[in-house]
Every structure is written in C-alpha cells, then in structure tokens.
C-alpha cells in the first residue's frame, strides 16, 4: 500500500495505548526486514532515515527502497526523516516522498527553535506530510551530534505546551531522561515529566534513546503517552554483529547472499521483538480500518 502519513497513525497509537516502533534503516536489506517483521505481526512500522544515511546513498535510492517494500505490504509504513537541522534537506525529503519530517533545532533558545520549526511547519503543510520537532536536549550521540550529560536539558512541560500549540505536530520529541546510544549507567527516566508533558500538549510523544531501556520503562512511558519509540543503536550493533557471527561460524563461506540472509534474519528478529514489546501487534489493520 502507499506510504502513510505519521500524524493519524501516532494519534491512533496514543489513543489506544500502544507505540509504533521507529527503526533507523541501514540499507535495503534492513528496510525489507523491518517491513516483513511488521507484516508478520500485522503491525504499523516507521522506517526512519538519518541525515548521514541520506548523504551516503541519496533521496532517490532510499525512497525507492521503502516504496518498493511498502507497495505490496498490507500494513501501514511511514518513511520518516529523523533528527535533521538542514532545512533544504528537509524539503528535499518531503518533495521526494518522505511522509514525515523532523526538524531538530533543540540546541537553540526557545524562540529561535520555534521560529526554525515554524519554517518546517510550512514545508510539512506544502507537501502534506507529518512533522516532528524537538524541545529540550537529549544527551548522547545521534547522527554525529553530541550532547554531553552536563549540557542536556530536560523539557519544561509549560514550554512544551506553548511549543506544540504553535506547531500542530505529528510527534513531539523531548528530553525526559533518555539518551541516544548505549547507556553507561542506569537511565533515570522522569515518568512524571512524561505524564505532565502529554497532559498539557495532547501531542503523541516520540521517545528517543530507546536502545537499552527496560521493558518496564517502555511500558510506563507508553502508558503515559509515548506513541513512537526510536531504535537505532541496537540495530547498528545487530547488523554488524550478525555479519561477524556468521563469518566466525563459517570462515570459508564467502557467498554474499548467505551472509546477507543471516543479517536479514537477525535484524527481523530484533524488529519483531520491539514491535511486540511496544504493543503494535495486530494494530496494522485496526488503524487502516479508521481511514475509511
């Protein structure tokens, strides 16, 4: 089926107490694996792209991958641009066929962040796509952007309400104690802050820094309104480790298709686990039935 807009999907997730898994694709193989995992569970899925992945391949290549695997799929698939500070790139993605775009101007003061985000709001409206924006600074490393713990800033709920009211977002990314990358210690997630933000904004929350969080943390965050959960670092590690494991087990096998299948299977298993964990199983057809 055609790629879907993220806004109604995340609203359905928030209203029905589940979250949609959002994975940062690595290549065509991982794109196929995430959509197949979603199909087997009758679940929606968000295929995300980082700015550096777009620069490495191209808009044309990536959108062709996702459209190819989605067009014959019976489940809702979103193509989303993750953390991007480059407004021309954001518009290029929207024009090329992404169905959701994200502006990350979170390092700027509130008013400047809002002004930059409003520019992207115009792009989203022009192309009829969903939009995500971020307020507060999430610590860790994401797409070569580094935020030290000392520089991270948790999102103020009142500021969040003003921000979301001005932007009509599909998803709101905020800092609530999670971090990009693997956690060096026990993450301290502020569940009260999540609840307060969602109570004031009424906007589906995007939980960034999902890799390494416990099942209990996921459940509590989703219960309080997190409707999109990002997984990137875990995918990178599984993608590389599955290659290493195959070659270690079969050091004389140099058939690329067998190695690629090992990666595909390992990644699909990981995708399936997170989709079920976030409550997405069975929600694909359920969401589609609301579209009429």
What does this structure look like?
This protein has 292 residues and is an alpha/beta fold. It has a single domain (6-291), classed as Aldolase class I (TIM Barrel). Helix content is 50%, strand content 16%. It contains 12 helices and 11 strands. The longest helix is centred in the C-terminal third of the chain and has 22 residues, at 256-277. It is globular and about 60 Å long. Mean pLDDT is 91; it is low at 145-151.
Secondary-structure map:
Layout: H1 6-15, E1 20-24, H2 28-41, E2 45-49, H3 51-56, H4 59-71, E3 77-81, H5 87-96, E4 100-103, H6 110-127, E5 130-135, E6 139-142, E7 145-147, H7 157-167, E8 171-174, E9 179-180, H8 191-201, E10 205-207, H9 215-223, E11 226-231, H10 233-249, H11 256-277, H12 283-288
Parallel strand pairs: 1-2, 1-11, 2-3, 4-5, 5-8, 6-9, 8-10, 10-11
Antiparallel strand pairs: 6-7
Helix pairs in contact: 2-4, 2-11, 5-6, 6-7, 7-8, 10-11
């Amino acid at each position: 089926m055609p790629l879907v807009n993220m806004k109604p999907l995340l609203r359905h997730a928030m209203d029905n107490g589940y979250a949609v898994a959002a994975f940062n694709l690595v290549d065509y193989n991982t794109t196929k694996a995430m959509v197949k995992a979603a199909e087997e569970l009758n679940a929606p899925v968000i295929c995300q792209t980082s700015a550096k992945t777009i620069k490495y391949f191209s808009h044309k290549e990536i959108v062709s991958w996702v459209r190819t695997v989605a067009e014959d799929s019976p489940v809702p698939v979103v193509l989303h641009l993750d953390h991007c500070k480059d407004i021309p790139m954001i518009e290029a993605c929207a024009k090329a066929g992404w169905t959701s775009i994200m502006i990350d101007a979170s390092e700027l003061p509130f008013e400047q962040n809002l002004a930059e985000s409003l520019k992207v709001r115009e792009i989203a409206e022009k192309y009829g796509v969903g939009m995500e924006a971020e307020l507060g600074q999430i610590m860790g490393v994401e797409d070569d952007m580094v935020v030290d713990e000392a520089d991270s800033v948790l999102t103020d709920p009142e500021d969040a309400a003003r921000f979301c009211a001005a932007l009509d977002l599909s998803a709101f990314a905020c800092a609530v104690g999670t971090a990009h990358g693997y956690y060096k210690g026990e993450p301290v997630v502020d569940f009260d802050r999540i609840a307060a933000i969602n109570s004031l904004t009424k906007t589906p929350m995007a939980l960034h820094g999902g890799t390494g969080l416990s099942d209990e943390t996921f459940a509590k965050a989703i219960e309080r309104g997190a409707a999109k959960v990002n997984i990137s670092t875990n995918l990178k590690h599984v993608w590389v480790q599955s290659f290493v494991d195959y070659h270690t087990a079969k050091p004389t096998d140099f058939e690329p298709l067998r190695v690629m299948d090992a990666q595909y299977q390992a990644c699909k298993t990981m995708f399936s686990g997170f989709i079920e964990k976030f409550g997405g199983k069975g929600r694909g057809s359920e969401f589609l039935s609301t579209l009429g």
